[in-house]
Design brief:
The chain is α/β, with parallel strands linked by helices. The protein has one domain: Spore Coat Polysaccharide Biosynthesis Protein SpsA, Chain A, CATH 3.90.550. The chain is about 35% helix and about 25% strand. The strands form three sheets. A seven-stranded mixed β-sheet has the order 3-2-1-4-7-6-8, sandwiched between helices. A three-stranded mixed β-sheet has the order 5-12-9. Strands 10-11 form a two-stranded antiparallel sheet. Helix 6 packs across helix 7. The radius of gyration is 17 Å and the shape is globular.
């Protein structure tokens, strides 16, 4: 068994649309048969109870509301939760929570596909120079080296899975890089992409393509308002949505769906 861990800051089950998206994450995670945990930052009581009712173990954090970059800070809490509460689980899967759901068991995917690597991550299937938000994020986070990444694919930090100790250590490293960034910005994804392009991490990180079936990031690969802008820039064939299930172009069911809320219709 593994643990699926998310974090939530500012989302609430008291708002119907947010309740729907949070429920989808929790229910789909629970359906995989793994343990489910969620770090709740400054939660209301209704949200805490709702996650508990859905089978997710809650870990509560209180933070001052000023100058909190939860994109960066979440990683230290995820590190501590994994280290203190799930040290014996084989794998940990750490994801965004508002726009993620599971179609298959990530534990099984990791068993079948991780090989000698320690952590699985996934490409957004677009180069930095072709994606405006990613380019701006890298430039603002690490302005002195951002040009080095223009012709490299963006690796998404919102879906990570691998051996629990290694995921916990990666969370600590990402927090150290992102939260101490002097430019006071949500630098988590930029920091992760720096690591992904360092040769020392090449044997540790399995950088999955869409066809590997680990994850799909629909912001670039889905039928969104930006589809026409991205279509000619994509590095992979678009996924197929069939009978409510996302599959690769070759028919392989994709384990994790990310950014589903951006899809039109």
């Amino acid at each position: 068994m593994s643990v699926i861990l998310g974090s939530s800051f500012g989302y609430s089950f008291t708002r119907p649309e947010e309740a729907r998206t949070l429920t989808r994450w929790a229910e789909s995670a629970k359906a995989t048969g793994n343990q489910v945990g969620v770090v709740l930052v400054n939660p209301d009581a209704i949200t805490e109870q709702a996650f508990n009712d859905l089978g997710a173990k809650t870990f509560l954090v209180q933070l001052p509301l000023t100058k909190v970059k939860i994109h960066n800070e979440r990683f230290i809490f995820q590190h501590l939760v994994l280290k203190q509460h799930y040290p014996d689980e084989k794998y940990a899967i750490v994801t965004d929570i508002r726009d993620v759901y599971f179609q298959t068991d990530p534990h099984q995917w990791l068993d079948d596909n991780l090989g000698s690597a320690r952590i699985a991550c996934s490409s957004e299937e677009i180069l930095y120079r072709d994606e405006e938000w990613g380019t701006g994020n890298m430039k603002r986070s690490f302005p002195f080296v951002h040009e080095d990444y223009a012709d490299r694919p963006i690796i998404n930090v919102g879906v990570l899975g691998g051996h629990t100790r290694d995921i916990a250590d990666l969370c600590l490293l990402l927090h150290s890089m992102a939260s101490h960034n002097p430019f006071d910005w949500a630098a988590d994804q930029a920091a992760f992409n720096m690591l992904c392009n360092m040769p020392m991490f090449s044997g540790i990180l399995k950088q999955c393509r869409l066809e590997d079936g680990w994850a799909v990031h629909l912001g670039v690969m889905g039928k969104t308002a930006n589809e026409e802008k991205f279509r000619s820039k994509r590095l992979a064939d678009a996924p197929v949505f069939e009978n409510g299930v996302y599959k690769t172009s070759k028919g392989r069911e994709i384990c994790i769906v990310h950014q589903w809320d951006r899809v039109l219709g």
